[in-house]
TrEMBL record:
Pfam families: RibD_C. GO terms for biological process: riboflavin biosynthetic process. Coiled coil: none annotated. GO terms for molecular function: 5-amino-6-(5-phosphoribosylamino)uracil reductase activity. PANTHER family: 2,5-DIAMINO-6-RIBOSYLAMINO-4(3H)-PYRIMIDINONE 5'-PHOSPHATE REDUCTASE, DIHYDROFOLATE REDUCTASE FAMILY PROTEIN (AFU_ORTHOLOGUE AFUA_8G06820). This is Riboflavin biosynthesis protein RibD. InterPro entries: DHFR-like_dom_sf, RibDG_C, Riboflavin_Biosynth_HTPR.
Length: 189
């Protein structure tokens, strides 16, 4: 069965973007990039991967889920940022048409449960905090690219809410000279 993987960059103080939704402080150069890109090449925007000569196979991820704010970060430069994947954007507003892109106002939990029953590669939860909070109980893996920076405020990993504590199992941590670490957790079932 397909898994829902929340794969995201996060600051040391737990933010996936700064106070004005900025994410340009995250390190995109350094020794961490080669290892992360080799494993998570499907999570690189299609045009950027092509420019870098990184092949994308849709073997790790076959579908990417985004909230409207996360999707809009690349507009208008990339109206279909991950067109090598099935892209689903959860929004109440029409987005227009783009390759492999579906906008929906359906319940994210129901969409994910249906996707998990289909054959294919895993489902990547790209962001943001509101969508992650809605899908919290559906997340099978949490893969954090911990960045050596502090925002102080901004978009949290999960939107605030009343949650029952959930314990995740540590799978691995890989540390890089750049100060970035990749940490993976799996849900206890």
């Amino acid at each position: 069965m397909r898994e829902l993987v929340y794969y995201v960059a996060v600051s040391l103080d737990g933010f996936i973007a700064g106070p004005q939704d900025q994410f340009d402080a995250f390190l995109i150069e350094g020794d961490h990039m080669e290892g992360i890109n080799a494993e998570f090449h499907d999570a690189i925007p299609t045009d950027i991967a092509a420019h870098l000569g990184i092949p994308q196979s849709a073997q790790r991820f076959g579908t990417v889920l985004m909230g409207a704010t996360t999707y809009s970060m690349g507009l208008p430069d990339m109206p279909s940022p991950y067109r090598h994947l099935e892209q689903i954007v959860f929004t109440h507003h029409p987005l227009g048409t783009a390759e492999n892109l579906r906008a929906t106002d359906e319940d994210p939990v129901q969409v994910v449960r249906a996707l998990k029953q289909q054959p294919g590669a895993d489902i990547w939860l790209c962001g943001g905090a509101q969508l992650a909070a809605q899908l919290r109980d559906e997340i099978d893996r949490l893969v954090l690219k911990r960045q050596p920076l502090l925002f102080g405020d901004g978009v949290p990993l999960f939107a605030p809410g009343s949650y029952a504590p959930q314990r995740l199992e540590h799978v691995r941590t890989v540390s890089f000279e750049s100060g970035v670490s990749l940490t993976e957790y799996a849900r206890r079932r």
